[in-house]
Amino acid sequence: MRFLMVMGVVMMSAGAAYAQPGNEKDQYYLYLVGDAGEPSVSSVPYRATIQSQLANNPQVPSAIVFLGDNVYPKGLEETDHRYRKVGEQILKDQIAITGGKSEVYFVPGNHDWKKGKRNGLQQLGYQQAFIDSLLDQRIHFLPQNGCPGPVEVALSDQMTLVMMDSQWWLHPWEKPDEESSACETKTKPEVLDAIEDILQRNRGKQVVIAGHHPIYTYGEHGGVFTLKDHIFPLTAANKGLYLPLPLIGSIYPIYRKVFGNIQDSVHPVYRDFGSALEEIVKQYPGTIYAAGHEHALEYISKDSVHYIVSGSGSKATPVQQKGYAKFVQSSLGFVRVAVTSYNKVRIEYFVEDNAGPAYTQSFSIPEKPQEENRPIVAEGFVTAKASSQYQATESKKKWMGANYREVWAQEIKAPIFNFQSPGGELKIVQKGGGMQTLSLRLEDSTGKQYTLRSIEKYPEKAIPEAFRETIAKDVVQDQISAAHPYGALVVPHLADAAGIYHTNPKVVWLADDPRLGEYRKTFANRLMLLEERPHGEAKDMDFFGNADDIKSTFKVIDKLAEDNDNYVDQQFVLRSRLFDLWIGDWDRHDDQWRWAELDKKGGKMYRPIPRDRDQVFFVNEGRIPKMASKKWALPKLQGFDYDLKWPAGFMYNARYFDRSFLTAPSEEDWIREARDLQKVLTDEAIENAINQWPKEIFDWHGEEIIKKLKVRREKLVEYGLNHYYFLARAVNVVGSNKHELFEVTYLDNGNLEVVVHKTKKDGQIDKEIYRRTFVHGITKEVRLYGLEGNDQFKFKGESGKRIKVRVITGKGDDSFFSTANHKPLLYAKPKGVDIEGPSKFKDRRSSDPSVNEYNRKEFKYNLLAPLVIANFNVDDGIFLGGGFLATTHGFRKDPFKARHLFLGSYAINTSSFNFMYQGRYTGLIRKWNGELDLDVKSPNFVNNFFGWGNESVFDKSIDDDPALGLDHAIEFYRLRFKEWSLSMNLERRIGSNGFLKFGPTLQIVELERSDGNRLVKDYEATLSEAILEKTKNFAGVSYSWGIDNRNSPIFTTRGLYFEQSSRWMNNLESSNSFGSYNASLSLYQSFKLPAKVTFAFRASGGLNEGKYELYQAQMLSGKTELRGFRKTRFYGDSRLVLNNEVRIKLGDIRSYLLPASIGINGFYDVGRVWYKDENGIDPTATTGQSSVWHKGFGGGIWLTPFNMAVVSVEAAHSVEGTLGYFRLGFLF
Q1: How far is CA 520 from CA 503, 528, 533, in A?
Q2: Which of 1063, 1094, 1220, 1227 could form a disulfide with 1038 if both were Cys (CB 3.0 to 4.6 A apart)?
Q3: Which superfamily, per CATH, for 2-215+288-364?
Q4: Which residue has the higher pLDDT, 1107 or 24?
Q5: What is the pLDDT of residue 467?
Q6: Any residues with CB less than 8 A from the CB of 874 and at least 6 apart, and which?
């Protein structure tokens, strides 16, 4: 009897068939399991509970979401890693929890991003690829490609699941970029807008937002630690290591609680994420935000929002019930969200192997607010203008351009949009993305989609936040007038003549129609462009190539890698891109294209479909815009004119697109395609297209645009070849994840022939899939990427000249064979390629996982930019000067191949100049970077010399002595000199934040003999040999190492900087030598983002030993260390200085011209030098041993213009008076 009673309780609990009023039934189950990435997930007790619940409720559909940290410790490794199989099994064990009865969703966590370290995005891709490879339609990895999301899934009529990648917000390393990523949302504001759009559309439904990082938590990530953590801290690393370390053990818990690392909720970046998301969800009562991260179970309620933490999928750690928490438990377990037929929700917490819920929270889904009832707008026409904000005076037109201002202000007649299409009534699917355009996505009953895009542009979100309330916003908004508001309307007619694909936009008036629903306030009463959205099947659309399907650029890239039977029609791409060049459409990045997928024998062919023709006929007419379009600034904005100076710069936004899809066409192909376009783009075709504009629009610029098109057509071969030569310098030839044979032949004339064949599994040739002959003198480098599969690389031929070839074999059983007289560079894993015969090559094999990486976004433009500099200090006065920065790029040279900085400046007061060259060379010798620094100070460069010792005197009344002939006391202490210094270092990064550098150094110095009395002359008189007007040469070596984890080197609010350096120098004219040893530690801490108060501390010091010259001493300077004192104030054998500073942000200056944050700082500096003369004493101290510490204190005001730089003004007081400082940046 007892057994039956127990079984009855278990069955009731497992089935969750709780007594419910009337006929209320459970309609959907959503299971939430977080941090299940340990191997132990295969045997966790709660597996049986979930499976029992599903078995006893087969009629209730369900889904399970794994909330991140799906594989410990660093996500799923690459395929040949020793822990790969373990990681795969962990994922399979999670999938098996529901017994194949539920939809399965994986959301990324920080551990899946390689524990938040470098190459995290690449590591995340391995997990996504594995889950996708399972080819199970019920198993999903979302969001994909490292995108932030949100991804919306309608689980049922009552419940919507929204998944986001919260690690994207916190990840400090590579992640999808804003310009050309596959992500629907690319910036934080866009992500938040998308989440709010989903919540708005789903009012009346239960929305569950699933991410990894909780907004509220009361475990370790929330700063909660146990007494054991304080007393026995080593148990965190080893559970059995109970070594008591009181006080010392508290350092780490206190740090995590007060400061936190980036994975803790107290950290400013994390807090910024949480507060931004909370600000949105609290406006939608009843929303559930579910997360893992904390290895515990928590239910937290605030502002009618339900915060779930379910992070104990495979491990449990302590948690406390505090704050807003209603329930917490440190046990393995999961959460189930049940929605009932009565629109009610139960949040249930299950732990260990207990069948019943440990905690339940019930509530009703808030009802959807009633919408205002208005009649549907009737059909008809409206007279309206695109915009009235671009009118300008003649002066403004001269500086900012006449542009198309009159066209924007011209009224036209537009039909009222009636939400109808050939496929029936159009329904709004969602609000569109885009940085400058308001858009809506619509769909008809047949599944065809359309887009409504505002003609007016709103560039505010495309402007960095610091510039949004400034003149920059108005300038960017004003330059919208440089784009023709109706340019897109004539493109279909030109495209038809050219024989390329296109959309068919038309202008409509979007009235205040109730069918806009929640979007009425934002979208009503606007001129819009309505066009077909390239999407899905398009067999009845010849303007989309009668495509069998339509794909995004990023899907096409995946398809090309997936199978070498899939290919891009590169001639069609070439024709489309020449057309872009002709019509002046500069904004053609990856996401501005869709692709027609056409079924071909054995595979798919892809042809590009351009969309969003907003920048057609964009002009550049004002003095300021023309300056901005220089090569060193924004050459893509050269504009649509009768001539184009630099086509390659104009095509900047498509730099990745062109290098991916124009790898096969030869110079002859470019000429042939351009000439064919010249033939078909006849005068008649051009005139007919432009005359499609309404007369009132055509009358403004129609004839001018026709003339420009005709002139540009005649130059199309010239423009095309300019871009061809630019692209041909370095070309990537990319294989697939199947098998290929790359045959490379060095030809007698120095050219290089590359042929790629598809091969069968046995290595036999199937068919040719790529052929191109690269011309020596045009192409400098060819890179062959095998990707995956079993690839063969064969080289032959002899030539006197050569084109550099790199072979990146990729993964698989690859082979390399060469009889050529030139050596290609071979990149592979040490055992990843079979070297056949006596093949010669330059060995670049490495066990580094990135050795096989193919990065289609590696290319960067070289840069040559002018610079202007200005500076001031009390000793030198004003410095004015300039120079230039030259940056070049190369294969796997990040952030550059070489950077050359040349600067020269002149001090007006002292007639001295300073020249500096700084060269930086990435990967100069494998992983070692090169540094070359030259610094020239001449003539009359000024330091000060007050004598040796810690208590040297600055006699401010010395100028009272007429015999000395001094205008100012400081002149007596001036030390003028010439100096040349040269250093060459090898530098290497260590881990994420460390560095090490070493190399030779050279110093040439001559102290000048000034007219009049100077202390240095008196000092020279005490020496056995002269030191003035005597050139001395020194040579030696130096090294330094350090750690830099500052959040910003310009405006640091958190982090640490440590550097220790040493150098050993020999006097080349004597046997004298010395060593100098220096170290500096800087700490920064603030508690909010954006930072309001930052505490900064620096300790620095140094020590000399041996025989060194005056100018090589350890100096304590008011300019760089001890504020309140003069430059190079104290000279000694060693020094130590402590800088303490607090920086307080007062607020933001919303200046139209110069927005900035403004703040104040207060500081207290203390320092001293130690010195011993030949008698072993400090002669400046009365006792022979100084115990004085010099102190300076003061404060200042600082500004951060555009949050891009720091300008500070300080006043510092010491016993020697008060001095002012003006500097770019803080002291440290």
Answers
A1: 26, 14, 22
A2: 1063
A3: Metallo-dependent phosphatases (3.60.21.10)
A4: 1107
A5: 65
A6: 1126, 1127, 1219, 1220, 1221
Secondary structure of residue 666 in the 3-state scheme: coil
Q: Which sequence spans correspond to the domains of the chain? A: 2-215+288-364, 381-725, 729-852, 927-1224
Q: CA-to-CA distance for 133 and 591, rounded, in angstroms?
A: 25
Secondary structure element (H or E) that encloses residue 774, with its range: strand 765-774
Whether the CB-CB separation of 487 and 617 falls below 8 Å is answered with: yes
Helices then strands (H, E): number in the chain? 24, 56
**Closest Cα to residue 784, out of 753, 821, 822, 751?**
753
Torsion, Cα 1130 1136 1140 1141, to 10 degrees, reads: 50
Scan for tokens 């390329």, then name that residue.
500
What is the reported pLDDT for 245?
80
Distance of alpha carbon 1081 from its chain centroid, rounded? Answer: 28
Strand pairing of 567-568 and 593-600? unpaired
DSSP 8-state class, residue 78? P
How far apart are alpha carbons 159 and 149 in whole angstroms?
A: 18
- Residue 1159 to residue 1226: CA distance in whole angstroms: 12
CB–CB of 741/791 below 8 Å? Answer: yes
Q: How many residues does the chain have?
A: 1228
- DSSP annotation of 693: S
Q: How confident is the model at residue 472 (pLDDT cuts 50, 70, 90)?
A: confident
Give the pairing type, strands 325-329 and 297-302.
antiparallel
Q: Residue 249 — very low, low, confident or very high, per pLDDT cuts 50/70/90?
A: confident
pLDDT in tens, 41-56: 888 999 999 999 999 9
Asked, colleague to colleague, whether 2-215+288-364 and 927-1224 share their fold, the answer is: no
Which residue spans within 912-1028 are E strands per DSSP?
A: 912-925, 928-944, 974-990, 994-1007
Strands 825-827 and 804-808: parallel
Would you state the pLDDT for residue 468?
A: 65
472 sits in the region (left: phi over 0; alpha: psi -120 to 50; else beta) called alpha
**Measured CA angle at 399 (ends 397, 401), to 5 deg:** 45
Question: What tens digit of pLDDT does each residue of 734-768 get?
Answer: 999 999 999 999 999 999 999 999 999 888 999 99
Q: pLDDT tens for residues 306-318?
A: 999 999 999 999 9
**CB atoms near residue 364 (< 10 Å):** 12
Tens digit of each residue's pLDDT (9 = 90 or more) over 947-992: 999 999 999 999 888 888 888 899 899 988 899 999 999 999 998 8
DSSP codes of every residue in 789-823: S--EEEEEE--SS--EEEEE--SSSEEEEE--SS-
CB crowding 728-744: b at 16 or more within 10 Å, else e: bebbbbbbbbbbbbbbb
pLDDT band for 239, please (50, 70, 90 cuts): confident
Question: Which residues face 347 on adjacent strands?
Answer: 337, 361
For residues 985 and 998, the answer to whether their CB atoms sit within 8 Å is yes
* Rounded CA separation 760/903 (Å): 59
Most confident of 94-98, 133-137, 1129-1133: 1129-1133
Q: If you ran DSSP here, which 8-state letter would residue 76 be given?
A: P
Per 3-state DSSP, the chain is made up of helix, strand and coil in percentages (nearest 5) of 25, 35, 40
What type of residue sits at position 418? N
Residue 100 gets which letter from DSSP?
Answer: T
Residue owning tokens 């990523």: 181
Burial class (CB in 10 A: 0-12, 13-18, 19+), 1227: buried
**Comparing C-alpha atoms, which of 657, 508, 530, 525 is closest to residue 586?**
657
What does the alpha-carbon distance between residue 531 and residue 450 come to, in Å, rounded to a whole number? 6
Query: What is the average per-residue pLDDT within 695-712?
Result: 97
CB 787 within 8 Å of CB 735: yes
Fold of 927-1224: Porin (2.40.160)
